[in-house]
Amino acid sequence: MALSLRQLAEAEGLRVLAGSAGLDRTIGWVHPTELLDPTAFLDGGELLLTTGLALDAVFGSYVDRLVAAGVAGIGFGSGVIHPRVPPGLVAAAESAGLPLLEVPRETPFIAITKAVSAAVAADEYATVVRTGRGQQELTRAAVGRGGPAAVVRRLARLVDGWVLLLDSGTPVEAAPAAARAHAAGLEVSELRGTRGVRLPSGDEVVLHSLDARTVLAVGRPEPLDAADQFIVNTAASLLSLALQRNREQSGVLGQLRSGLLDLLLSNEDLGARTIRGLWPSLPAPPWRFAVVVGAAPARRAFADAMADSFCVARESMLVVVGADPSQVEPLARRLGLHAGLSPATAAPVAYRQAGQAAHAARARRVPLLDFEEYAGSGLLSLLPEESAALFAESLLSPLSADLVEALRCWLEEHGNNDAAATRLGIHRHTLRNRLRKVEALTGRNLSSPGVRAEFWVALSVAGAHRG
């Protein structure tokens, strides 16, 4: 660690004459000079050594210039030009809060220079060793099985702070877990390169843009020093490479999973055998399906957490084949997602039912909804299966697929035209026109609660029996 004025004074037997409140300042370097205005040759942080050769009655302005230049303190050699430190200099230094140390004649300036130089060299060596070890640890974490999550955890330990990996502003990795709470105070949407911010909590945060949507955030109460900044830069580089590699691999694997899901839905026997050959941990079919909807970054985090499961990204949703409710529900809750769960049945039917339940879960603002609960299986079980199917067919047969979907979505949104139109991706006037067509083709008035209930039962029966 760099040498402070207090440590130097104690080690070399220097008497503190003024500015004792600033003795914990660290000394960046030593600069002997007899110039009245040496500021052009200073960088700040120096201990300025002088015998006062040119000093007379200009103590106030002299001290003011040194304070403005950011010097750490003055070491005044007494017994050379001045038998003792001029009282005017002591008064000016005390007034400015600038530490003033008396260097007795028997203590040569070179001894102070050597002491500070040795401390600076030791500090630089310690920085090199620390950054080298940090670089090695981060590299091992990056190439290990833990991937970006391991790098984030290791970085938090190395800088003794908290670390977030944000995808489009949403935290996907955090160390410690409580660091997720800091995400709300970070504005990263327009970030390019690196930026430092200070949170209301007082934490100093450094933001690194890793790509168009991913940001690394590192924070702690005190600013990062040079070694910490080097370690963070190393982590940012490794994470950028790891994310690029993961996305390339994920793209290929995603295409494979998507193709296998299509095969499963079109040829269930062949698809199931192929999937189980590649994912032997899956139970024997028939499988339960889960469909997850919500923000894209959160869906990606969900898929990462379910890496050992058969997950398929499909447009605005994520499909999980062979879903375990005990895994899906807590993960969806933590990430702010909504999931629908099917019973274990034929794959095409389970896929459709899970999707319907997922949209209903989002409408009800719950993390998980089972299709059997959503479809009101208790009521449907009271109806003779054949009669219920005939009823649903007679009521819905005049309607085209887009009218059925519009009706279903409108009922799921409790008759809210704006919400249903948004989900369907159509204008609300288009939705109203479709609902009028439903009324015209079926001869039923949707303003009647009883009619809406009949349509809901018909849609639930149709959803349970199609496949």
Automatic annotation (TrEMBL):
<dbReference type="InterPro" id="IPR012914">
    <property type="entry name" value="PucR_dom"/>
</dbReference>
<dbReference type="Pfam" id="PF07905">
    <property type="entry name" value="PucR"/>
</dbReference>
<dbReference type="InterPro" id="IPR009057">
    <property type="entry name" value="Homeodomain-like_sf"/>
</dbReference>
<feature type="domain" description="Purine catabolism PurC-like">
    <location>
        <begin position="7"/>
        <end position="119"/>
    </location>
</feature>
<protein>
    <submittedName>
        <fullName>Purine catabolism regulator</fullName>
    </submittedName>
</protein>
<feature type="domain" description="PucR C-terminal helix-turn-helix">
    <location>
        <begin position="403"/>
        <end position="460"/>
    </location>
</feature>
<dbReference type="Pfam" id="PF13556">
    <property type="entry name" value="HTH_30"/>
</dbReference>
<dbReference type="InterPro" id="IPR051448">
    <property type="entry name" value="CdaR-like_regulators"/>
</dbReference>
<dbReference type="InterPro" id="IPR042070">
    <property type="entry name" value="PucR_C-HTH_sf"/>
</dbReference>
<dbReference type="InterPro" id="IPR025736">
    <property type="entry name" value="PucR_C-HTH_dom"/>
</dbReference>
